[in-house]
Amino acid sequence: MSTLATPASAVEDPSRKEKAQQIFSDVLAKYNLTPDELRDVLDHLKATAEIVKAAKQPFPFNQKETMSILREPMTHSWLHPLTNLAHKLLRHHEVVDEPYMVGGLDQEPGSEASKGVVCMCFYATVRFQPDEIRVYSNHGMGGMCPEDEINLVGIHKAPDFLKQLYPQLEQIADQQMRLPIAEYETPKRVNIRMAELESSGPQL
Predict the structure, then answer these.
(1) Does the pLDDT value for residue 199 go beyond 70?
(2) Is 0.85 topped by the overall pTM?
């Protein structure tokens, strides 16, 4: 039987070592892998885990800065407040930032359930969800950027004030994407209702 080195913590616990060895053997048998191929898979998983760990960072903007970003005028019909924020996040992470970013509500075909708002340009993708924002970069490889963990450069827990605004921001993103494609002669502001966030500034 092939064996795989187990972590020190598992060696100290015979039951964990036995379970780890059984999982190793089961995977080899199920996927017809050689021990070396499985080690390559485990090395990839370890590298991916390190990328995810490094990507977890505090949200980089305070409430005042964020609201100012969200209020920036729209120059094209397909833009919305979260595309403004996506651009700023790409610059924060020093990711190649294309001037024209598209984005809208991500939904399964035939379903009204939302999987978040996705903003995409060449080289990068930013996914907004109620509790979390993920920033991906294909590191200048060209073309659109897949949302693969190996491409992660930022995972930000959404601050409370942004969580409160998220349903409205998602609705605005969806509405903007349904408009006919147009360039505005005069940049337009999108109304963001402040509700309980009155203290952060005037309503648009």
Answers:
(1) no
(2) no
